[in-house]
């Protein structure tokens, strides 16, 4: 039914249906042809409804985008840490060449290194000693198997499991010296 006359002549049920239809059509910004504003007050009401609809729509889209963007905790953590590093270097007047080197290292560390980077220290402390050992072994075992010495070894072999449990992650930037002549080694460096 096209409403071309004042709503006073329409049954109450139809008025509510028409009002609901009008509000949904306005808030979804689809527009309408059969129901339209006929004077300044109605046009003002329509404009307010359109504005409110746009704000609600934008709010919903923003929340969905934020939800999707925060699904990857590793990336959120890395972005926050990157911002902290940049701010700290800027406040301390770090030379641009060193800034670039630090950020290249950080990018490598967070994006390309197989080492479990997200700080799990506080999480690990809440676990029992046995679970801590199992979790550390599970995280470090794939890294140990990057080394040709351990690549073909059985992952359940006690030597491999124990060694993986003793590993401490250390990441070095490309072309950075891991050892120096005359300086005692601090550990085993499987590459």
Could you please describe the fold and organization of this structure?
It is a single chain. By secondary structure, this protein is mainly alpha-helical. It has helices at residues 12-27, 40-69, 73-91, 96-112, 121-125, 129-144, 148-151, 158-166. α3 runs antiparallel to α4 and α6 crosses α8.
Total strand segments: 0
Structural class, judged by helices and strands?
mainly alpha
Q: Approximately what portion of the residues adopt beta-strand conformation? A: under 5%
Give the terminus-to-terminus CA distance. 76 Å
Q: State mean pLDDT (0 to 100 scale).
A: 76
Question: Helix-strand pattern, N to C?
Answer: HHHHHHHH
Q: Helix share of residues?
A: 55-70%
For the CA atoms, what is the radius of gyration? 31 Å
Low-pLDDT stretches: none
C-alpha geometry: elongated
Biggest β-sheet strands, sense, barrel: none
Oligomeric state? single chain
Count of helical segments?
8
Provide tags for this entry.
61% helix; 0% strand; 191 residues; mainly alpha
Q: Which SSEs are present, and which pair or pack?
A:
Blueprint (H helix, E strand, L loop, with lengths): L11 H16 L12 H30 L3 H19 L4 H17 L8 H5 L3 H16 L3 H4 L6 H9 L25
Helix pairs in contact: 3-4, 6-8
């Amino acid at each position: 039914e096209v409403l071309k006359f004042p709503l006073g002549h329409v049954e109450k049920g139809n008025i509510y249906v028409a009002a609901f239809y009008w509000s949904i059509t306005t808030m979804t910004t689809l527009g309408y042809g059969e129901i339209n504003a006929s004077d300044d007050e109605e046009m003002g009401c329509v404009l307010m409804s359109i504005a409110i609809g746009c704000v609600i729509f934008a709010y919903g889209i923003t929340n969905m985008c934020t939800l999707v963007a925060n699904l990857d905790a590793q990336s959120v953590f890395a972005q926050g840490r990157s911002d902290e590093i940049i701010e700290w270097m800027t406040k301390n007047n770090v030379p641009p060449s060193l800034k670039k080197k630090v950020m290249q290292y950080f990018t490598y560390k967070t994006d390309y290194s197989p080492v479990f980077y997200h700080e799990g220290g506080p999480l690990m402390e809440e676990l029992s000693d046995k679970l801590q050992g199992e979790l550390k072994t599970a995280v470090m075992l794939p890294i140990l198997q990057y080394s040709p010495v351990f690549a073909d070894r059985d992952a359940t072999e006690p030597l491999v499991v124990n060694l993986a449990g003793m590993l401490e992650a250390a990441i070095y930037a490309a072309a950075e010296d891991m050892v120096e002549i005359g300086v005692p080694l601090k550990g085993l460096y499987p590459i």
